[in-house]
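One example copied in:
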Amino acid sequence: MQKRVGNVRWWVAILLGIGIVVNYLDRVNLSVTTVSLQKEFRLTDPQIGYILSSFLISYAVLQLPVGAWLDRFGVKWLIRIGTIIWTIATFLTALVSGFGLILLCRLLLGIGEAPAFPGSSKATGYWFPVKERGLATSAFDAAAKFSSVIGAPLIAFVVSVYGWRAAFYVTALISLVYGIAFWLLYRDPSESGQLSAEEASYIKEGGAQEEKVVPAAGGWATVWFLLAQKKVWGLALGFAAYNYSFYLFLTWLPGYLQKTLHMSVLTSGWYTVIPWFIATLTDIFIGGVLVDRLIAQGHDNTRVRRTVVTIGMLLGLAVIGAAFTTNAIVATIWISIALGGLAFAAPVAWSIPSLIAPKGTVGSVGGIMNLLGNLAGIAAPIVAGYILQYTKSFAANFLVAGAILILGILSFLFLLGRIEQIPEPENLVERVGVETRADNESRVR
């Protein structure tokens, strides 16, 4: 069946996945170079925490508008523009001369990369039937982990041989090449000249999201409607708990290995590879292949996804084990278990917006989810920096991450509920208008 209908959609998934790899190279480069930056500019641990999270400030602030823009203008143009901005931001980082300029460059990077994840989620909804959504989502979500597998040692090598500025020149060049490739290759299914009629029918009949369906009320009326949905809050809060731990590892893991376990930059780069490689494998084969296979065999969609997310986040609690050792191998084992579990929970979470969102609002649901997730991501490096400064140890950071994961598990279990499409609001425009008039009359009285 796969061979007969064609595989254009899987080439699209690969293109999106490469984009996320490049996205995260631009995040990993700073993680690997933190010690070098700290020495050159005499930065404190809290200042490093602010630098590590500054990218996420602009990234998170833009998630709601980006979600609405994706629903209105589509994936193609927003990611095209984003690649230009993030390439410029990465190049400029190599030229900075102090704390303030680094912050500005990272804020610009957040603006450029804001459409990447919700855009990939929306594109996956366009291009894939529901039964393939797990593996398709893991194609771009696993890329976020795989980026550290190749990025950490690559950037560590560049830094150790050529200095930290060279790392940003290299990643800027890679971003430029990807931007050109995406501009030339990505099209929505209705615009694709490569998509056969058979594959288009297979995608549509399998429950793919309709293209270019904009909610009747548009804009903020739709956002307010979605924010009133318990399912959306369950998804967003659960994802925020995951993202706190994810960004703690992404931003501080190389620094933790260098500062606490006294590794060199190059050695820390290789140790960083191990947990991220395991995370890449579990993301694809458990969060993607296994989830799709179980659903294809007739198992309940909600039960499968909820069970996988819960088990993954429970395994994430293994991060607590790293709080009680200073042995590099033991710490790496605990961190690998935690990241491996979190990794296969993540693509399940990212597949949910396209499954629960009313027509034309996948971008908005993904934006809300990513907003809360990245607010947690903003907090993680800053909190870690202060904890490290006052305790001189990473132990408390791992304990805090474990407590937050428990709250996330409860959100997925008790707020999200069944994973099914939220009913479309009837006559949202008229309802909003009536409510507005009623409010005005009430104020007059």
